[in-house]
Structures are given as C-alpha cells and as structure tokens.
Fold this sequence. Notes:
This protein is globular. With about 110 residues, it is α+β, with helices and mostly antiparallel strands. Helices cover about 20% and strands about 20% of the residues. Strands 1-2-3-5-4 form a five-stranded antiparallel sheet, covered by helices on one side. The longest helix is centred in the middle third of the chain and has 17 residues, at about 60-75.
Amino acid sequence: MQDHDCIFCKIAKGEIPAAKVYEDDEVFAFKDINPKAPVHFLIIPKKHLASLAHADAGDAALLGKMLALAPRLAREQGAENGFRVVINTGRDGGQEVAHLHMHILGGPQPWK
Ligand code: AMP
Ligand code: ZN
C-alpha cells in the first residue's frame, strides 16, 4: 500500500470525508477546507507522490490529465472568468501537505 499516514491518500480512498468535486480511476478533486478564493479546490493523483519534485517522466500523462481537467472543473465550480493553478512544492515552495496537489483558485472577485 501507499503512505498510510498521508491525509490526501486517505481522502482519495474515502477514508476521510471531503467535498468531492471529481473522481476517476487516477485522479481525485475536492474543495479546499480553508478556501483562499470563492472557488478553491485541489486536484490530486490517487497515487501517492510526495510533491511535484517527486514526479518523473513516467508521470507525464497523469500530470497532463490533472492539468487538462482544471478548466472544466473550474467552470463547473463557478470560476467562469478565469482561475489560477498553483502547485506549492517543497519546504521553500510553501508545501504543507506532502502529497502532490494542484490548487485551482478562481471565482468572482468583487473587490477588483
Ligand atoms: P499546501 O500549502 O500547498 O500544501 O496546501 C495544502 C492545502 O490543503 C491547504 O490549502 C489546506 O487548506 C488544504 N487542506 C488541508 N487539509 C485538508 C482537508 N482535510 N480537506 C481539504 N483541504 C485540506
Ligand atoms: Zn498520499
């Protein structure tokens, strides 16, 4: 098995509840518990990868799939006029959860 102590592995397996946005055999997406924007969800691989720095060429299709899903899921979640994709990587990259995750941030920005 993969890392049993990893919170995002547990979310991907349904062992910890999350507000699911999307799921297929390789990818899981769920709302961020502490949203920084009107739309804020995370796209993760079901396979445990500690960070983007732990991915290699064999993960290219998986990473491409995650990225290609972003516009559709962002639109479905209400980010109709654009969004940001953020992948914090490693200690100096501000990564807090050691399972690769893509932040999708968007939604109406009434202050702009
Ligand atoms: P990062 O700093 O890129 O590692 O971001 C980790 C993100 O995971 C933060 O935005 C957290 O709010 C989010 N997060 C942590 N635990 C959970 C959880 N159980 N469900 C949803 N989001 C979470
Ligand atoms: Zn994990």
